[in-house]
Amino acid sequence: MARPREFDEEAVVRAARERFWDAGYAATSMTDLSEATGVGKTSLYGAFGDKHALFMRIFDEYSTGAVKSAEAELDGSDAGAFERIRAYLLANASGSAGNPRGCLLARGTSELANADPEVAARAKCAYEGLSAVFARAVEGAQRAGDLDPSTDPRAVGDLILAVHRGTEALGRGGAEEPALRTLVETFLASLRSR
Questions:
Q1: At what angle do helices 9-23 and 51-74 cross, to 10 degrees?
Q2: Its pTM surpasses 0.85
Q3: Does residue 182 contact residue 148 with C-beta atoms inside 8 Å?
Q4: Exposed, middle or buried: residue 109 (CB in 10 Å: 0-12, 13-18, 19+)?
Q5: What region holds the HTH tetR-type domain (predicted)?
Q6: Please, how many CA atoms are within 13 Å of residue 56, restricted to the half-sphere of its CB?
Q7: Fold of the 7-49 domain
Q8: 159-177: per-residue pLDDT in tens?
């Protein structure tokens, strides 16, 4: 009979996520993960498999959570759809300014997607999910009369995703909050003027 685990699995996953997020995948060893989690390497292997399997669990949970979080913030009545888009992008701009960590989804994608088909597929799924959430919000704003109904909601959803990801990348690179907020407001004004 297998012994019960002597650690809180979710706490270990959170600690491992923080380590991957801070250092990246390649710069994180199983020894690093053992030190970060307080769990021996043998136990980590037994519970999660190898480093890649643990990273994919973390990456998948984070990616799924990013889409669910966007849904929670953007879904709602048509009347408030444009303001929800605006608030979402401005909050991202504020959170991205001077934040060298950035988003784990973006970090993992940029580090691994070109060499790891599993990461690439998961990232693609997450980005498509985010774009679909943004497109639904655009459709709501169109029905409310806040955005031009002739624009393609899917194309605008992709643009919102690009601004969201671009704002974060600029923040990681040292862009300050006022500049990022101006970028967002300029983008949103361009949507209204179409």
A1: 90
A2: yes
A3: no
A4: buried
A5: 6-66
A6: 14
A7: Arc Repressor Mutant, subunit A (1.10.10)
A8: 999 999 999 999 999 999 9
